[in-house]
Design a protein that fits this description.
- The structure is a single chain.
- The protein is of the alpha/beta class.
- A hairpin with a 2-residue loop joins strand 1 and strand 2.
- It folds into 2 domains: 2-135, Up-down Bundle (Four Helix Bundle (Hemerythrin (Met), subunit A)), CATH 1.20.120; 150-367, Rossmann fold (3-Layer(aba) Sandwich).
- The protein has 12 helices and 18 strands.
- Helix 1 runs antiparallel to helix 2 (56-75) and helix 3 (80-92) runs antiparallel to helix 4 (99-113).
- The structure holds 5-S-methyl-1-O-phosphono-5-thio-D-ribulose.
- 5-S-methyl-1-O-phosphono-5-thio-D-ribulose (MRU) binds at residues 54-57, 169-171, 175, 181, 208, 246-249, 259-260, 334.
Length: 368
């Protein structure tokens, strides 16, 4: 996707040194575009924990590249296997909710195990990291191709009038390798000349909507308006939202979807107002081992300072300010679960299905 007219993906190998992985450090967006070089597993783990890189698909791809660096490091250790397993555990423990991370680490472990020598294992790890990233981009592109049909239909129903889409958090190309999940149908609609406008939830506490989704849409020239998190229900009651599309961090085989905190409230408001509510995800976001999202998905609790403080630009400098009384306690749940019954459908790389086990398995029969 474009940044100031230049093409970027969110993660890539340095073209002069294939032991260096480059990422966009999202902590500084939308005000500064900073590229960070990662060279060790520890740097990767810190970048994920401190959210230099974030978003389910991207942390999956990052875990893939992190395991490649782990393989390189393991060559220098007394026991290759021991360091590899320690690194895998370290990466898996960085963020618990997004299943893509665990999925990518496990995929790397199985792939690397097939190598007959240490050098072969390293080559496999590098190739697999590239494959995971490429697949993520391809799957997101296909999500766009399927999802755009819903937007097209709404546009036809409105005689070509603007389709108003509400989204929460950032399930855009910054959260994946390219295209994004929730944004991919929007980018495709815009590309095809269908009139779209996006309501961007600010998404407290870290404001991924206000700072990342808004920045992405601006870069691609997609009309949008940033709203405070509490505004969506009001807009829906007044006919100003045609559909909601969100991403997901983990979706059960029965269709319950964990996504950024606040998503559930948007789904309730959409349900009450009879508005379509879609969840877009690549298949790496399904957790095939669980059904009941509320009981079985571990919700990440993050540092309460993310609630108490906000970051922004002041006189040209990035500043952090306290917005609560210093001594008021705060709590910071990162995600919530939207039950399948509130979801109109799931947009995946293989097509769109209802959010129930039978319909999901019809698309992904290998997980029966
Ligand atoms: O905590 P984050 O920023 O990593 O949150 C994850 C998300 O980006 C959202 O929940 C998103 O909608 C999921 S799709 C990447």
């Amino acid at each position: 996707m474009k940044v100031e007219g230049e093409n970027y993906t969110t993660i890539w190998l340095d073209k002069n040194n294939d032991k260096v992985v480059c990422v966009i450090d999202q902590r500084f967006l939308p005000h500064k575009f900073v590229i960070e070089n990662l060279t060790t597993v520890n740097e990767f783990a810190a970048a994920i924990i401190d959210m230099h890189i974030r978003g389910a698909g991207l942390i999956g791809a990052a875990a893939g590249y992190g395991m490649y660096l782990a393989a390189l490091e393991s060559k220098e250790k007394e026991s290759f296997d021991e360091h590899l397993i320690l690194s895998a555990d370290k990466l898996k423990s960085t963020r618990p909710t997004a299943v893509n991370l665990e999925w990518a680490v496990n995929r790397q472990l199985s792939a690397i195990a097939k190598g007959n020598s240490i050098d072969e294992k390293i080559t496999i790890a590098k190739d697999t990291a590239g494959l995971i990233a490429d697949e993520d981009a391809q799957y997101c592109r296909r999500i766009g191709e399927h999802g755009v049909k819903i937007i097209e239909q709404i546009s036809k129903n409105k005689n070509g009038g603007t389709v108003n889409i509400l989204t929460h958090c950032n399930a855009g190309w910054l959260a994946f390798v390219d295209y994004g999940s929730a944004t991919s149908p929007i980018y495709e609609a815009h590309r095809q000349g269908i009139k779209v406008h996006v309501w961007v939830d600010e998404t407290r506490p870290r404001n991924q909507g206000a700072s990342l989704t808004a920045w992405e849409l601006l870069q691609q020239g997609v009309p949008h308006t940033v709203i405070s998190d509490n505004t969506g229900g009001h807009l829906m009651q007044h006919g100003l939202v045609d559909m909601v599309i969100t991403g997901a961090d983990r979706v059960t085989r029965a269709g319950d979807a964990a996504n950024k905190i606040g998503t559930y409230l948007k789904a309730l408001a959409a349900f009450d107002n009879n508005i379509l509510f879609y969840v877009a995800l690549p298949s790496s976001t399904f957790d095939w081992n669980i059904k009941d999202g509320i009981k079985e998905i571990q919700i990440e609790e993050r540092n309460s300072d993310e609630v108490k403080y906000m970051q922004g630009l002041c006189n040209g400098e990035l500043k952090t300010i306290l917005v609560t009384p210093l001594n008021s306690p705060a709590v910071n749940y990162g995600f919530d679960v939207t039950p399948a019954r509130l979801i109109s459908g799931l947009i995946t790389e293989r097509g769109i299905c209802e959010a129930n086990e039978q319909a999901i398995l019809n698309l992904f029969p290998e997980n029966l």
